[in-house]
Amino acid sequence: MSALASASEHDIPKIIDLWTRAGLVRPWNDPDLDITFALKSPNADILIWRDEDAISASVMVGHDGHRGVVYYLAVDPDQQGNGIGAKIMKAAENWLIGQGIWKLNLMIRSDNQAVQKFYQAIGYETEDRIVMSRRLKASDT
Fold this sequence. Notes:
Blueprint: E1 2-6, H1 12-21, H2 31-40, E2 44-51, E3 54-63, E4 68-75, H3 84-98, E5 104-105, H4 113-121
Helix pairs in contact: 1-2
C-alpha cells in the first residue's frame, strides 16, 4: 500500500540511498546534515512516498516566511514516469499552502534538461533570475 508521510530520523538511511540512486547527492552537500537540519526546522519538512517499507519518492520542502523552496525531489529510478513525482510535488505545494506560503521557487541545474521538462509539464515557468550563492563557514563570522 502506498502512502504519503513526513519523514523521521528512522528514514534517513533510506532517503540518502534514494537520493544517491536518483543522482542528487553531490560531494559538497552532506545529505545526512541536510536531512537532519530540515527535520529539526519548524519551517521545513521532508515528505516521503512510501510503498510498504520502501521509500519510492521524497521531497525536501521549506520556506523563509515569504517564499517556499523545494530541494531534493527524488523518485526511485525504477519508478520514474509513473506520476509519483507529480504527486509528491503536489504534496509539497499543499504543505506550503498550509504554512501560508503563496509562491514556490525552484533551482535546477542548467544542464538538467529532463528535470526542466518535468517541471514545465506540471505547470512551472522559467523566470529571468540570477541565483548567486556563497558557502558559509564558521570562520566567516
